[in-house]
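Researcher: I'd like a candidate sequence for this fold, 456 residues long. If you have to choose between options at a position, lean toward the conservative one.
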């Protein structure tokens, strides 16, 4: 099949690479010429395991090419995927400027029948509007169909997810377009959910909002576990083995971040209020997530007697989660800002997100370290903010020899509590009463109001 993919961000670039790997001929389009030149050389604009190998292989085998010209890119295509960004606007809903612009341009350049597929996450009603916009901009009386085909890729695992999706959602009002789309995905042998436009659009938001709810639920469970002496990881394990609950997305931590969950939950809430409905549960999900990082910081502040000036912390993790260099809406970055705002000096390390972090955090009161051990050298505490696997296997003896006081704040429950306590650390995790929390309860309670305000 001949396919055009507009937008070479996470979704578009991974999509283009995998579609070409399936034997299709793909032209990727992006307005950013510098980015296109880098991709052609095999330099990926994002860190995504396995991606550059697939891109280079398919470029060299002639199935994958890139251009900055939309008209050229879509000329011979049977399917045109729209994978442009839909960031959060100031009012909380999705900013669809890029989608509208691309739809108009597609309309102006449409000369033969094509299926136009919206992969970008868009609110209910967008596919219908895109259809109208394309129609209004046609220069010839060309036939076309619009299809909603939301993506469910996780950053850091998107190559894997694209090849092996749990399901494919196809929202369409045309049997012809549906059959073309099915022929693209049929070989995967995975369930295909046929839907109308609005249901397909809603499935994406509902899925992300439900996963975010699972995280906020377990983060609230963590609060009760900590207070009552239960261990949230054990509770999550016990819950997750019930097939109706499932084990995934039950890791308590400092809250969810990234380019999708915060934006999509807010957008769904906005959709509900636009429909004159107050989605109460979602309000709670967002509030819990907002407070979670403050609660974590308050443990650090209280441990150090309410004053972080003059303290130096070794911080592991800046990306919004493991396996990515992405720091968009990263809670780790927010925690770093709060700690710095409270007077601490931070020695930071992340396996992939150093460059991106430096751009937003600058260098005041922050030292960017070459590895995890350099970051903790001669510091007052180890603070873990991202769930990179390599942080879970840190050599505790080396940590002990590096830290001035033997205290660890684990914002991702990534360390083995038993081993950490055996190594005689004071260990603060999320949702676990430990030697650390007992010690904490003997200290004066109360959290300085300042830490409830984010940022420096
Ligand atoms: C998410 C969805 O999973 C994906 O289907 C959609 O297409 C895009 O949004 P992604 O943003 O890549 O993917 O990250 P994900 O792995 O879902 O994690 C989101 C956030 O939740 C991260 O900050 C992560 O640290 C946090 N998280 C995740 C938890 O705090 N606990 C968990 O148990 C799981």
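Model: Candidate sequence:
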């Amino acid at each position: 099949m001949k396919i055009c993919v507009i937008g070479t961000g996470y979704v578009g670039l991974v999509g283009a690479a995998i579609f070409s790997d399936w034997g299709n001929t793909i032209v990727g389009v992006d307005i950013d010429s510098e980015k296109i030149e880098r991709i052609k050389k095999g330099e990926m604009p994002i860190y995504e395991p396995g991606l550059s190998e697939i891109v280079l292989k398919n470029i060299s085998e002639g199935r994958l090419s890139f251009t900055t010209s939309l008209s050229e890119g879509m000329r011979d295509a049977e399917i045109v995927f729209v994978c442009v960004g839909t960031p959060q606007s100031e009012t909380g809903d999705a900013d669809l400027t890029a989608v509208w612009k691309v739809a108009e341009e597609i309309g102006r350049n449409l000369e033969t029948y094509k299926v136009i597929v919206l992969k970008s996450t868009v609110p209910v009603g967008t596919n219908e509007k895109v259809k109208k916009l394309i129609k209004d901009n046609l220069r010839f009386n060309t036939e076309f169909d619009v299809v909603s085909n939301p993506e469910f890729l996780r950053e850091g695992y998107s190559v894997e997810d694209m090849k092996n999706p749990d399901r494919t959602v196809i929202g369409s009002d045309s049997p012809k377009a549906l059959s073309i789309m099915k022929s693209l995905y049929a070989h995967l042998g995975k369930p295909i959910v046929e839907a109308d436009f609005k249901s397909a659009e809603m499935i994406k938001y509902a899925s992300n909002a439900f996963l975010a709810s699972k995280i906020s639920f377990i983060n609230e469970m963590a609060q009760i576990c900590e207070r009552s002496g239960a261990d949230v990881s054990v509770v999550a394990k016990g819950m997750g083995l019930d097939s109706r609950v499932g084990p995934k997305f039950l890791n308590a931590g400092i809250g969810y971040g990234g380019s999708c969950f915060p934006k999509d939950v807010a957008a769904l809430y906005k959709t509900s209020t636009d429909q004159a409905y107050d989605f109460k549960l979602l309000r709670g999900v967002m509030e819990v997530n907002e407070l979670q990082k403050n609660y974590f910081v308050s443990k650090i502040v209280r441990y150090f007697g309410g004053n972080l000036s003059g303290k130096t912390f070794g911080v592991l993790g800046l990306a919004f989660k493991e396996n990515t260099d992405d720091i968009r809406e990263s809670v780790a970055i927010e925690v770093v800002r709060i700690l710095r705002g409270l007077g601490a000096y931070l020695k930071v390390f992340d396996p992939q997100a150093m460059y991106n972090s430096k751009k937003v955090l600058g260098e005041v009161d922050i030292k960017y370290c070459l590895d995890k051990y350099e970051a903790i050298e001669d510091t007052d505490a180890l603070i873990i903010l991202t769930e990179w696997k390599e942080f879970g296997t840190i050599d505790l003896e080396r940590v002990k020899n590096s830290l001035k006081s033997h205290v660890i704040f684990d914002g991702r429950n990534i360390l083995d509590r038993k081993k950490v306590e055996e190594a005689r650390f004071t260990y603060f995790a999320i949702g676990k009463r430990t030697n650390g929390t007992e010690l904490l309860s003997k200290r004066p309670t109360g959290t300085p109001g300042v830490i409830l305000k984010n940022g420096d």
